[in-house]
Amino acid sequence: MHGSLQPRARSERCLQVAASTAENRQDPERRPWSEREKGSRNMLRPMDSEQLREYGHRMVDFIADYYKTIESFPVRSLVQPGYLHNILPDSAPDHPETVEKVLDDVKTKILPGLTHWQSPNFFAYYPSNSSVAGFLGEMLITGLNVIGFSWVASPAATELEIIVLDWLAKLLNLPEQFLSKGKGGGVIQGSASEAVLVVMIAARDKVLRSVGKNALEKLVVYSSDQTHSALQKACQIAGIHPENCRVLKADSSTNYAMRPELLQEAVSRDIEAGLIPFFLCGNVGTTSSTAVDPLVALGKIAKSNEMWFHVDAAYAGNACICPEYRQYIDGVETADSFNMNAYKGLLTNFDCSLLWVKDQYAVTEAFSANPEYLKNKASQENLVVVDYKDWQIALSRRFRSLKLWMVLRLYGVETLKNYIRNHIKLAKVFEQLVSQDSNFEVITPRIFSLVCFRMVPTDDNDEKKCNVRNQELLEAVNSSGKLFISHTALSGKIVLRFSIGAPLTEEKHVKEAWKVIKEEASYLLRK
Amino acid sequence: MHGSLQPRARSERCLQVAASTAENRQDPERRPWSEREKGSRNMLRPMDSEQLREYGHRMVDFIADYYKTIESFPVRSLVQPGYLHNILPDSAPDHPETVEKVLDDVKTKILPGLTHWQSPNFFAYYPSNSSVAGFLGEMLITGLNVIGFSWVASPAATELEIIVLDWLAKLLNLPEQFLSKGKGGGVIQGSASEAVLVVMIAARDKVLRSVGKNALEKLVVYSSDQTHSALQKACQIAGIHPENCRVLKADSSTNYAMRPELLQEAVSRDIEAGLIPFFLCGNVGTTSSTAVDPLVALGKIAKSNEMWFHVDAAYAGNACICPEYRQYIDGVETADSFNMNAYKGLLTNFDCSLLWVKDQYAVTEAFSANPEYLKNKASQENLVVVDYKDWQIALSRRFRSLKLWMVLRLYGVETLKNYIRNHIKLAKVFEQLVSQDSNFEVITPRIFSLVCFRMVPTDDNDEKKCNVRNQELLEAVNSSGKLFISHTALSGKIVLRFSIGAPLTEEKHVKEAWKVIKEEASYLLRK
């Protein structure tokens, strides 16, 4: 299985050079990997540029070889819980081991335990894109390794983030208030979970400043039952009382979009009960089925009730850089904040979640902390510079805008649009294959590159049996190692999710995946 | 300045090969970087293994060259706010640009805007370590690009994290309850800010479950005034009322360690007032001056008042892998959670913050959310597998244990200990230089590799003037570009922080830094 992950000739030479150099070289400071070092003359030099060059090249080849052979691995790992514990030592080694030995362990012990997200046959969850440009960007981020918590800690890290988020805002045709030139602006968070937590805290504190800080127990959050679990987690962390989280039922009558009249009713009821509606989360492209909430109608209700309106477009926001899909975020002008994950569709390696807010001061008011040891001239001359530490949960942060900037420049916007369009086209192909087969049905209309489908109930129309069979199919397909899909539940039906978006996926992979699914289904039906 | 960052011969050849290949090759699917692609035959292949190889090698050389020339850059960037806005375009390019052009922009536009954290002359804040092993680890994390939110999403990512955190716990000689075999365990967070937030939420929810959820306004947090601002931020996010945050004064009489009697008094007063003490944060190595709180005494008070006791050893925890420094976390056995940042001293690139808890269920109770689309066989057979999504704020997570594992194996524990000891030795050298100069004084005894010092007041003994002069010195030194130091305030005194820990720092850099500081000071004194 790992045949072609053997070191190639060039790398092998590199390593031999490195090894012999390490043994023969007279200058002890150049031998940091050697076990034979002793005494003060042999001071460790953990960041030797020539060593980084030699072993960096070796690692590039290792990773390139991984991608070359990626289709040979079972997509979902087939290991059993605890497998690694049984094959790794109980404690860290006292003395250095060789790169060769460690890479060999990666091949034989780690790779079999991976679920290969970059495999062209990975159709589960939503994609997490890797790309050559994203990889180069991450290398550079890691190489420079600066921590840009405040402007002065690395001005370029802050300024590039502002610029690139403005670029993206323009691509998405977001309203001007989200751009950096006014009181709005964008920031890179790790993931959509952090993004929604940040804006919820900002909204919570804003309302508590006006109604009094003991009113927390009166604050109410609204969303549809299709909203990502990140919202529930944010509520838990923000201390919103569970009974004040209105999870509004959505069903097939709206393709699982939130119904504004349900929202309006809930809000009115809560106000009548003396509660305070303060946060509404709208979805563009839910995780279960890519449902799109009616933003315009929701925004109106949010505005007339002075609620913070957050739009979570973590997945589908990517497609909205294409003019023909921009319609799905129509109404974003009524939102207070908007979020999309560049790692889901824009070829930028995880993590990279883009958050825009109209009122940056609501965020910085909630998140700023200015101890003496972080004070500096630039930050104290207020308003002149942005200190992103005040826009996020943590203090420290990586220079993530660098990879997004490199992706945008090395691929160009047109290529990125076509990349997304291609996945949607492939999803249409899959959708058609499913709908032509009488044993299957497509559940909810496909909008982006996710197809929700299932095996139809058999003669007795027993939904429970049907659910069990679909779960059996899911397990059979995934256990084959040939592809990996995931599932969800919609109105009580177990639904299979076929999500296209891995960078290497082509039409042949989609067709082959369908063949495997059909075969496993036939086998189940014959049983 | 950027002379040796010019492409080397080998890379240039690589690039030329790539360019001519892209233009001449007949198979259009192999030309994803070309602007001339059109039509369906030219489908984009954003993760072409050979392209990754070619450009990956190019990037390795770029980064190796950066390290080779890192001393030629001003350590703290000398750019003015807004510099980048003036030299970058207003929008993303429609069509691909070449790697060469982008790297040229990195050299001419980004590098001048960086504060070079990896420079051997970076002595500000606390270090953020880079290393060859850490770099290789990050490359591999980025290359594999798996998202291990639950066990099944990549079993190796979860299992390696458990194993490596156990390794570290053993190196630190943490009590058994922090190891994974019982109900405790370790987890990698992004930073110490996330770590303290996670445990505070866990503690908050645990106490609210027993006293009722409307008691939030009664909850009280305790720490010394030397505690990192991350605690204040965590309190803000967790909704702890600001007037319930007891910030206990610490002064030079205890070298800025918390005084247990002050804590006991505050706790008693709060209980009498009907409040509920629930969270105590103890420090091992504060950010201002590496103060170490008396953990044993604090733990006793925490225990007898049923408070969650968190120990923040973000910086100094690293040194505690050396037996001679282990004493500074004596008393950790009384803690409920313990945190240290491997990126501060253990040669693991940011981000990588290690958190251990004795009661994992307190954490998962607060952070778990289990939507249908994440359910899977392994997780449902409870207790068998760990799903780290329930141990952190976000859902998604990178495979960060991989780099820590590689660092531990490629350097070995003894080398890491000596690496830390060497920085402490260099700090002693600097401390001596300072104390031998009558214009300067060391403030607070040095314990680890941070030296807190200042210019002494002149004849009139005016502390205010002295503060101004030290701030002038700080600015003069940092504006020179020759080194970067930071400052803090202790008992109203402006204090300069000389923090040693960059991977390339040697004795000559420390001595040269002192020379610059002395020269700038003489100049100020002559004025």
TrEMBL record, chains A, B:
Listed transmembrane segments: none
Cofactor(s) the protein needs: pyridoxal 5'-phosphate
Keyword field: Decarboxylase, Lyase, Pyridoxal phosphate
InterPro entries cross-referenced by the UniProt entry: Aromatic_deC (IPR010977), PyrdxlP-dep_de-COase (IPR002129), PyrdxlP-dep_Trfase (IPR015424), PyrdxlP-dep_Trfase_major (IPR015421), PyrdxlP-dep_Trfase_small (IPR015422), Pyridoxal-P_BS (IPR021115)
Region feature (Disordered): 1-48
MF terms in GO: carboxy-lyase activity; pyridoxal phosphate binding
SUPFAM superfamilies (alphabetical): PLP-dependent transferases
Bias type Basic and acidic residues, positions: 24-40
Name of the molecule in the record: Tyrosine decarboxylase
